[in-house]
Write a structure and sequence with these properties.
Shape: globular
Number of domains: 1
Order of helices and strands: EHHHHHHEEEEEEHHEEEEHHEEE
CATH topology: Penicillin V Acylase, Chain A
CATH class: Alpha Beta
Distance between the termini: 28 Å
Low-confidence stretches: none
Length: about 350
């Protein structure tokens, strides 16, 4: 096992102050992340940044606080506001979420042996992205404290908060993507919520730019919210005490809209394998066992633990996360969980 630990960035204060601390601490990484993503798009930098500006009014209407935080990140990193916005809309400009493929789960207390609700996932992305990832520890002046595994300059991704809420994300692809609120901003608002009901309201009210799946837990429940740009469905599985999601729609109302299966036919296989492993071990699932399951290689190389191949635009598991929101803890392996040691991160 390789001892890789992601950098932890602590930011506190007003939205602008938190953004500035984030930007200043990650200045080099943010510059590299902007350049890396500009190279991946078949667009000139000027055109990409010009297109990014069209999302700004939607971001500002959705949350003036997060818009201020973006300003702080840009100032702290000494880059333009357009470049920071670009990082949050880069997948939307490409009209696809290729690269953000993941396998995620949530377990109720009855299904785990940790004494609380647990969730986790593997984050699968393009090679090189994992080397830039960070752990962001946010202490706002008001609202819950947030711990999130994310990318430099990105306001929020997979994580937990101090009220016991947790969030995982899965890319799903539906038609009709548009200029609107990028999913990172929705994710960050969810990380500032205190219940699944509050999260559902945030999702319902957002003018969403793209489809996305939000796997959520709070102090009492687990739930999954599948979204298209105009609609959403809530999935529950309280009888079995577990929810599993990969990269295709599970609700029958969205089956005909699914555009991701053609690009990633391994999604149903990963879903089946992950669900079977969790059900087989239900009641005895501790953190170590969950990390072992996330290291599974069935259907390799298109497995839960995904390794780099020679295919064009190949993706790999760049991080593996198991979170215990009630204990305010995240166990994070940087890179493939089968090869890298897990580091423990906690909310203060």
């Amino acid at each position: 096992m390789k001892p890789v630990r992601l950098p932890v960035v602590k930011a506190e204060g007003s939205p602008y102050e938190m953004g500035f601390m984030h930007g200043q601490a990650c200045r080099t990484r943010i510059r590299e992340f902007v350049d890396l993503n500009l190279r991946r798009l078949n667009l000139t930098a000027d055109r990409a940044l010009r297109m990014s500006r069209s999302y700004v009014p939607h971001i500002q209407r959705f949350s003036t606080e997060l818009a201020e935080e973006l300003e702080g990140i840009a100032e702290g990193a000494d880059i333009s506001y357009d470049e920071i916005v670009f990082l949050h809309v880069r997948s939307h400009l490409a009209r696809q979420l290729r690269g953000t493929w993941c396998s995620a789960f949530a377990l109720s207390r009855s299904a785990s042996s940790t004494g609380g609700i647990v969730l986790g996932q593997n984050d699968d992305f393009f090679h090189g992205f994992g080397e830039l990832s960070i752990i962001l520890n946010l202490v706002p002046k008001s609202g819950p404290r947030i711990l999130t595994y994310t990318y430099p300059g990105i306001i929020g991704h997979i994580g937990i908060n101090s009220t016991g809420l947790g969030l995982c994300l899965n890319a799903v692809v539906s038609p009709g993507w548009r200029i609107g609120v990028p999913y990172y901003f929705i994710a960050r608002r969810l990380l500032g919520a205190e219940s699944i009901e509050e999260c559902t309201e945030v999702i319902a009210q957002a003018t969403r730019a793209s489809s996305m799946n939000y796997l959520l837990v709070d102090r009492l429940r687990i739930a999954d919210i599948e979204t298209t740009v105009t609609d959403y469905r809530v999935l529950l599985n309280e009888d079995e005490g577990l929810l599993v999601h990969t990269n295709h729609f599970l609700h029958p109302d969205f089956a005909l809209q699914d555009k991701g299966l053609a690009e990633l036919p391994c999604s149903p296989i990963r879903l089946k394998v992950l669900r079977e492993l969790l059900k087989r071990n239900s009641g005895s699932l501790d953190v170590k066992k969950l990390q072992e399951i996330l290291s599974n290689h069935q259907n390799y190389p298109y497995s839960i633990c995904r390794h780099l191949t020679n295919e064009p635009n190949a993706i790999e598991t760049i991080a593996s996360i198991v979170a215990e929101p009630s204990k305010r803890l995240m166990h994070v392996a940087a890179g493939n969980p089968c090869e890298n040691r897990v580091s423990l991160h906690g909310l203060e």
